């Protein structure tokens, strides 16, 4: 469980806690799980309400609607329950109505129901859903409270993408319907590849939820705020950082309570210069440390995961020999980027296993490259066949967009969706350094592929 003392709160994530905004989209490692757990923690939720000024959050009743768990819950169906219901032909929207019916009934002294019983009740009386939720909404308003139902791990809703898409579309449609109530809301956390599926939002009024989504990203100032926060929490670095801040007149830039601020960027940059020097070398020709590090750790969507950022700085601090006048130097940061590249790719391989054969086919090739050249390499290396073969036991191991057809184009589009590839204005395909280095893909002028790869 996340403690209040360990939580760093980025200013840009304020929208996640806005009860009016029901859809949150983020890539692996951007904080979806953190915010799910934070919303479910009463102590942390009170702190969040105070920091971000969302008054209603402190008095909200937060429950889980789905989280991909195998544990039986009075509110959230298990993966097996959902799979069995879909296999038996139950309408996806009816499943989610039954989930909300069970949750809302507790405000009306309703008896605990199994999900199957709730579905049967709705089938026998289609008006039951609106009646129960309306009565629960009135009761919540009377109490001055809000019911927030959290949905996470949507990629585990089914055994294949077609089932997952139908269930997710039904959930999004139901969330739009919740806007009719004043005190009942959903908070849906979604992966970026699912959000990019064009068929997911093909239902009436889908724009009401799609156009108001929260994009879960970390700005460079927030990443550096997190780094400084972790240094403050560490007994071995706290006093040195405080002395540096006093010398640089940048004490206001220290996030002592874990609260991020965009008001102290200049002080923050002075602190980073004091830790690592101003330049990635002897002068500005190689770039400034403050901008160079997040740039070279960013994916094609110009976002950097906090874990990758912290790994890069940790490995930079461990890089021998230690610089005489700094905690970190540019050579350490170069090595740190290589370590972060390896870590980040392994993370994405877990969520998107189809990335691995797509990148391995490009080993020792130069990017940027023409689209036709990329497709020819993928064809000659039998990449699509490799992805299909690895997905024989788990159909979710293919990209969502394989449902659309034209698998080469779908693979490239999916690589763009998750930020692993970018298509430049001249039509050429590029792989950002954060992935290119570990995948042993070459680029003139880029961070060098380590010599250990030969």
Provide tags for this entry.
single chain; 454 residues; mainly alpha; Rossmann fold; 3 domains; 5-stranded parallel beta sheet; 6% strand
Order of helices and strands: EHHHEHHHHEHEHHEHHHHHHHHHHEEH
Sheet with most strands: strand arrangement: 2-3-4-1-5
Helix content: 40-55%
- Taking Cα atoms only, what radius of gyration do you get, to the nearest Å? 24 Å
- CATH architecture designation of the largest domain: 3-Layer(aba) Sandwich
Main beta sheet strand tally, sense and closure = 5 strands, parallel
What share of residues are in beta strands?
A: 5-15%
Shape designation: flat
CATH topology call of the largest domain: Rossmann fold
Tally of individual helices: 21
Termini separation comes to 43 Å
**What is the number of beta strands?**
7
The gist of it:
Helix content is 48%, strand content 6%. The chain contains 21 helices and seven strands. It has helices at residues 32-40, 42-52, 55-58, 79-87, 92-105, 115-124, 128-143, 161-177, 192-195, 207-210, 220-233, 238-247, 265-276, 289-296, 306-318, 330-351, 355-360, 371-380, 383-390, 407-417, 433-436, and strands at residues 23-25, 61-66, 147-151, 184-190, 214-215, 422-423, 429-430.
Can you characterise this structure?
The chain is mainly alpha-helical and 454 residues long. It is 48% helix and 6% strand. The protein has 3 domains: 205 residues, Rossmann fold (3-Layer(aba) Sandwich), CATH 3.40.50; 130 residues, no CATH class; 87 residues. The strands form 2 sheets. It has a 5-stranded parallel beta sheet, sandwiched between helices. Strands 6-7 form a two-stranded antiparallel sheet. The longest helix has 22 residues. The radius of gyration is 24 Å and the shape is flat. The model has no long low-confidence stretch (mean pLDDT 93).
């Amino acid at each position: 469980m996340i403690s209040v003392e360990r939580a760093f709160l980025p200013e840009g994530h304020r929208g996640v806690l806005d009860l009016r905004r029901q859809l949150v989209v983020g890539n692996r490692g951007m904080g979806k799980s953190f915010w799910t757990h934070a919303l479910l923690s009463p102590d942390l939720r009170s702190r969040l309400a105070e920091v971000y000024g969302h008054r209603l959050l402190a008095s909200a009743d937060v429950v889980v609607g789905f989280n991909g768990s195998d544990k039986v819950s009075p509110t959230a169906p298990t993966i097996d329950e959902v799979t069995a219901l879909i296999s038996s032909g139950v309408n996806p929207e009816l499943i989610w109505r039954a989930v909300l019916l069970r949750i809302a009934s507790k405000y009306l002294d309703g008896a605990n129901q199994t999900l199957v019983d709730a579905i049967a009740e709705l089938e026998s009386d289609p008006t039951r859903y609106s009646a129960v939720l309306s009565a629960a909404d009135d009761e919540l308003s009377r109490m001055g409270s809000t019911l927030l139902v959290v949905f996470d791990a949507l990629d585990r809703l089914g055994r294949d993408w077609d089932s997952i898409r139908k269930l997710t579309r039904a959930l999004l449609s139901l969330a739009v319907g919740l806007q009719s109530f004043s005190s009942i809301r959903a908070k849906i956390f979604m992966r970026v590849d699912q959000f990019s599926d064009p068929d997911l939002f093909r239902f009436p009024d889908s724009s009401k939820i799609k156009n108001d989504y929260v994009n879960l990203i970390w700005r460079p100032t927030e990443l550096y705020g997190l780094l400084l926060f972790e240094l403050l929490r560490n007994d071995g670095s706290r006093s040195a950082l405080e002395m540096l801040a006093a010398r640089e007149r940048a004490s206001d830039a220290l996030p002592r309570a874990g609260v991020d601020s965009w008001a102290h960027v200049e002080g923050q940059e002075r602190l980073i210069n004091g830790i690592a020097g101003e330049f990635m070398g002897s002068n500005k020709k190689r770039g400034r440390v403050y901008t160079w590090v997040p740039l070279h750790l960013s994916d094609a969507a110009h976002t950097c995961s906090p874990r990758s950022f912290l790994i890069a700085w940790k490995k930079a601090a461990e890089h021998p020999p230690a610089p005489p006048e700094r905690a970190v130097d540019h050579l350490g940061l170069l090595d740190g980027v290589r370590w972060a590249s390896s870590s980040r790719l392994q993370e994405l391989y877990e969520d998107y296993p189809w990335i691995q054969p797509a990148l391995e086919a490009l080993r020792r090739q130069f990017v940027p490259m023409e689209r036709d050249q990329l497709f020819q390499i993928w064809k000659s290396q039998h990449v699509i066949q490799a992805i299909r073969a690895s997905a024989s036991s788990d159909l979710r191991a293919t990209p969502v967009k394989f449902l659309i057809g034209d698998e080469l184009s779908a693979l490239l589009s999916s690589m763009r969706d998750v930020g692993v590839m970018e298509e430049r204005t001249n039509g050429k395909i590029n792989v950002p350094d954060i992935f290119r280095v570990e995948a042993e893909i070459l680029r003139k002028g880029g961070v060098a592929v380590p010599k250990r790869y030969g």
